[in-house]
Structures are given as structure tokens and as C-alpha cells.
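Annex B. Sample input.
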Amino acid sequence: MAILNIFSKKQAKKVSKEPKQEKKDSPKASDVQKETSAPVVSKGYSKEHKILIKPHFSEKFTLLGQEENKYVFEVKERATKNEVKKSIESIYKVKVLKINTLKAPQKTKRWRTQKSIQKGNKKMIVTLKEGQKIELGI
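Annex B, continued. Sample output.
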């Protein structure tokens, strides 16, 4: 019969009629954090610096920067165009007109009998307003 007790209706617990007393003397830890809402940044970097990985240098993209005022950056995989736009405008103090996205797929590499996966990357081509430049040390 002990097996069938699982399926029977549960007995109602006896509830005490005494009201619970609330402690209002000490504030909760979550209330203290809400009052001091300073942004938490690890290792001295802001969120804008964490989105951009590095500028991408190649012959093709260097010519784009000189002729068409376009610059290429490698970014985090989950970065969006709006996040990249805000971060570039805040870091380099320039006006971004347009952003194009390139996403390279993962590649499988083989060495003898072992297979490994080479991680893909995400690049963003940023078009700046005419007359503005980013000094990247090219």
C-alpha cells in the first residue's frame, strides 16, 4: 500500500495563524546594489573595448581605408552592428555611416589521423563620414 500512497491526495498542512514578523532593520544586499549602480568593469576595460578584438590589416583592406574611407575590425562572434557602431564612435571619436558584416565559417583541419576545428571569425567593415580618419598605425 505504500506504493499507492503516492497517488492519493496530499493532506493539507496545518498553517499557524500567527502572522510572520518582517525584519526591516537591515537592508537586503540587492537593495544596496541598486542604490550604487556603478558599472562593473573587469580589468580596466569598458564594454566598448571588449567588443572590438583588433583592426584587420591586409593589402585589400588597407586600400579600402585609403580610397573609400572604410576600415575593417575583427569583432566578437555575438557583436551586433549597433554595438560595434557605438564602440567605434566612442573609442575613435568619429561618425560611422555604414557597417557591413563578414563572417568566416569554421574549417576542419587534419594532421595525420587527428581532426581539429579552426574557429571562424567575424569582421565588420566600417564606413566613416567623409573627411574623418582613424589612425591605426599603418
